[in-house]
């Protein structure tokens, strides 16, 4: 065991008084600081010259310590490398990031799956390189790295590939750094050019194999010193040399001043020698009370922060700091907001002379083998905390995996221990009984600490998403290179077996040379074969995503096609249309009545496609549906052919869509349908109206569906031309409520007015029209004509379509009733989460996109305050984005531009936040004083109000304002069309 002593001058963190003129945070104008993170591997906190070791020489780290804000009382929360490194890169405790040990427990057929799932965790977590990238940083990984490839952790550059087939586990190629020089790091810094950079230098040093250079081994070889110890000492100095080379390189390049160099060790190490007093069955090369233990030899490390010219070098021997603090310290120095799951403290505040506000410094240690990768607590062995000079260690009963032997010795009788580190730094004397009251208070601090830690997997919306969500919801490289031209979907439906089988011919044009295509098809359906030209293509499956290898890259500009064959038992929709899949129903005559629906979950729940909103088949789609001969299949577009296979007792219905169509708009309905037709003579010629109902419904439907041309008339007035004259307009009866399937609106509202006979606005107006016919037809303009690129922007579909309901009322009834309706619908608004969802993960926002979104648009009309202009904006929107997929930004910009009013803050308020602004006002004689609360910065609403029955104009904003009226104010009322709450202040 090595000697321990406190050296250097004693400085209290609070007493540091630094004459610093610069702020400790990069301001916007200057380049943020570079970050170099040096991480030692398996080295005790005592084993440095500057920490007072009698024999080990570390001149380079001694120099760094002298130039740094150096904390001699630093800790890592856990004394095992993988979880410790994961904590450094995420700023989270192991119980938060779930990477609690080095490997999943051995055995079991699913171990490879568990390894992959563990490695995938990092992709869902915020990491330093990911967050730094938001400020333009490039980042380089070298040395130890357990979490798959460097890119999986968010590094832009790096050495570790992580491929297990090529020896990937904890660093592979990256482990060459240090032992074989530092050239890759130098090259990266060179290539970074003007960009701020982040270097992860975690060489496998002084970690085993202890194979120091001969010159260093000779230096430390001494009489009476075991060879294993001499080797370890030499390793420490070898590591020190590489640190010196790295820091010198930075300084020699003139980068020192704008580079923060941070030093920490991943965990401790006490070299075991022949002389070590270890239990008989101790089978580790390290001695007890070091690695994997909660003792100081396991969890303590010096921590250094060097930022020349900005922070003063200080040897701080009092302040307790943790590697958990590094991520928030780095982020704040870079001017990046710290995610709320990171609870570490900004160490720069010590440099500012402030005390760190920390009740107890805590850590936790789990078994090397992870029993359950989603529940770290099953492997929890120790928790510990330090308060002042006292340290408490508490044992837990987690599963120990292969390391049961060592933990049996370290845990002993599992009693809780208290040590006084000042007088007993080796933790030899348990003071629990002696200082019982203090011990219990520390124990309670420890329990509270871990109870209060935020769970990033639950608390943060964006963390709920999986790799599958990202593959589904983003424009992946395997999607981006090809542009969809046409689908030819052929599917045979077997109602008795409830199975489907078919193929999709996908025609596309090559935008950028590529050879791997992503095609989506959700489980349990399976792609059985993919054909291209004359041959079959190979493919691999990752959940709901198939990667199809075309072999040699296809050149840019080429038009090409593949045919994807698939089959299986599709998912049954539990609650159509809100949950996707097939509905296998029977009609009142006992005949099959079948329908698909897939909004949200996606079309790939029943057919293989490029399942993302941004790309629609420009030339439309052909849908061939084969069903038993006594049934009829109805799909989108026009019925262009029917084939009867007399022997096979099947009929095939060919439906043709000539216009672009979004995936979720494609549907197949199968039943004992009868058909009747009508025509609508609209502003733009004759539109074919095509109705498909069950035989017994025909008479009712012929009357009730007169609502359809009335709806189209109203919407052509407000929004312009019906977008799909070529493909006709259809209403198709289905065994669920209804859905906006393009040119094939499905209907299940029971031939009644209202929403299933109810009025959503509670004003009576909602019973004046059939909600499903009006709402779902409104989607032909907003949803099918103007379509969202990303599901997060679903408000473009639903807010405008909700708004269209009141325009229908206004067109056929009165303006007054239209207002009653839209305003009455505010009762359904919940304001719990924003309307815009999370981008790139197929996530739609709050259901408030209906009523709140509709009311926002209604208010915008009143801000424009010119009905004809407003109508031309709505019509212009459908023209400007005719048959296009768009983003929220495009729609926002268009509306602001056309209106001549900057709506950006209105959108921020109502789409991106959850507060409805509140107009606080007071009346004093002739004076009205008013201001908005709960408003986003910069929100201005030019509103109207009535004073004593007379209309006045007011600009509402967060600024206090007043209005002088001619007479005493007796009555004040804000125009109800403005979606603002009001509150009289006494
Ligand atoms: Zn809708």
Automatic annotation (TrEMBL):
<feature type="domain" description="Aminopeptidase N-like N-terminal">
    <location>
        <begin position="485"/>
        <end position="662"/>
    </location>
</feature>
<feature type="region of interest" description="Disordered">
    <location>
        <begin position="280"/>
        <end position="300"/>
    </location>
</feature>
<keyword id="KW-0479">Metal-binding</keyword>
<dbReference type="Pfam" id="PF01433">
    <property type="entry name" value="Peptidase_M1"/>
</dbReference>
<dbReference type="InterPro" id="IPR017850">
    <property type="entry name" value="Alkaline_phosphatase_core_sf"/>
</dbReference>
<dbReference type="InterPro" id="IPR014782">
    <property type="entry name" value="Peptidase_M1_dom"/>
</dbReference>
<feature type="signal peptide">
    <location>
        <begin position="1"/>
        <end position="26"/>
    </location>
</feature>
<feature type="domain" description="Peptidase M1 membrane alanine aminopeptidase">
    <location>
        <begin position="707"/>
        <end position="910"/>
    </location>
</feature>
<dbReference type="GO" id="GO:0008237">
    <property type="term" value="F:metallopeptidase activity"/>
</dbReference>
<dbReference type="InterPro" id="IPR045357">
    <property type="entry name" value="Aminopeptidase_N-like_N"/>
</dbReference>
<dbReference type="InterPro" id="IPR000917">
    <property type="entry name" value="Sulfatase_N"/>
</dbReference>
<keyword id="KW-0106">Calcium</keyword>
<dbReference type="GO" id="GO:0008270">
    <property type="term" value="F:zinc ion binding"/>
</dbReference>
<dbReference type="InterPro" id="IPR042097">
    <property type="entry name" value="Aminopeptidase_N-like_N_sf"/>
</dbReference>
<dbReference type="InterPro" id="IPR050738">
    <property type="entry name" value="Sulfatase"/>
</dbReference>
<dbReference type="Pfam" id="PF17900">
    <property type="entry name" value="Peptidase_M1_N"/>
</dbReference>
<dbReference type="GO" id="GO:0004065">
    <property type="term" value="F:arylsulfatase activity"/>
</dbReference>
<comment type="similarity">
    <text>Belongs to the sulfatase family.</text>
</comment>
<keyword id="KW-0378">Hydrolase</keyword>
<dbReference type="Pfam" id="PF00884">
    <property type="entry name" value="Sulfatase"/>
</dbReference>
<keyword id="KW-0732">Signal</keyword>
<feature type="domain" description="Sulfatase N-terminal">
    <location>
        <begin position="33"/>
        <end position="336"/>
    </location>
</feature>
<dbReference type="InterPro" id="IPR027268">
    <property type="entry name" value="Peptidase_M4/M1_CTD_sf"/>
</dbReference>
<protein>
    <submittedName>
        <fullName>Arylsulfatase</fullName>
        <ecNumber>3.1.6.1</ecNumber>
    </submittedName>
</protein>
